[in-house]
Design goal:
With about 230 residues, the chain is mainly α. It has one domain. α3 runs parallel beside α5, α4 runs antiparallel to α5 and α5 runs antiparallel to α10. The longest helix has about 50 residues. About 0% of the residues have low confidence.
């Protein structure tokens, strides 16, 4: 009865029960993630894949422009999720930010919208790459290579595996900041021991650099156009 308070409560016991409940809650979340995590990630990737294939069959760059014009930042985010997951088959990814600046930001006149476009591009691409990272982490390298929607050949993946083993974590943002290597370090990072949060931060950093260069190029093109140089 030493724990009994004057009001008849049992403070230490109650606190212990609360801690146990919180621990049980975290345990249940962890068990669910371990048992069904791959299924959830694969399901999300399957839906993204269906969208990517449908857009590949019926879409083109004009459709991307039309979707961005009609649905704005929501469409831009969804398209960048496909880009990050390496499922963007119907439009060149390097055209997305310049097109969005032209369609949504009045060619750069709306500076706030330009900043929002960059933020949405980084968020969407990072979400897509993180999905692929989790799929690689849980499904494994060989499992991915067997999938028809995974467009990276084994030889290319071997080469980028070598990059990751040689340069380590800095290779993730550096590769994401370059035109022809964007996303190629996602799977090597996923099958390593890198944590999800660390990968997402490095991925976002590289994407921010890449999309900022594209935005700067688009704004420069708008500035030069009145002089008849384009």
């Amino acid at each position: 009865m030493a724990d009994e308070r004057a009001d008849g409560g049992y403070g230490a016991a109650d606190a212990g029960t609360t801690d146990d409940d919180a621990s049980d809650g975290r345990s249940r979340v962890r068990v669910f993630a371990e048992d069904y995590g791959l299924l959830v990630v694969a399901g999300a990737f399957f839906l993204a894949g269906l969208a990517g294939i449908a857009l590949f069959v019926w879409g083109d760059e004009a459709l991307a422009r039309s979707l961005i014009d009609r649905y704005g930042l929501v469409a831009l985010f969804a398209i960048f999720v496909l880009e990050g997951a390496m499922l963007l088959y119907f439009a060149p990814s390097e055209a997305l930010v310049p097109v969005s600046i032209g369609v949504l930001a009045g060619g750069g006149e709306n500076v706030v919208m330009v900043a929002l476009i960059l933020a949405i591009a980084v968020a969407g691409a990072t979400a897509g790459q993180t999905l692929l990272f989790l799929l690689a982490q849980r499904g494994g390298r060989e499992w991915l290579l067997e999938k028809p929607w995974f467009r990276v050949s084994e030889d290319s993946l071997d080469r980028f595996d070598g990059w990751f083993h040689r340069y380590g974590r800095p290779a993730v943002p550096v590769s994401n900041a370059l035109l022809f290597t964007r996303g190629m370090l996602t799977v090597p990072a996923g099958v390593s021991e890198m944590k999800v949060r660390e990968f997402a931060a490095l991925s976002a950093l590289g994407t921010l650099v890449f999309e900022s260069w594209l935005a700067a190029a688009a704004l420069l093109a708008v500035e030069l156009n009145p002089f008849g140089l384009l």
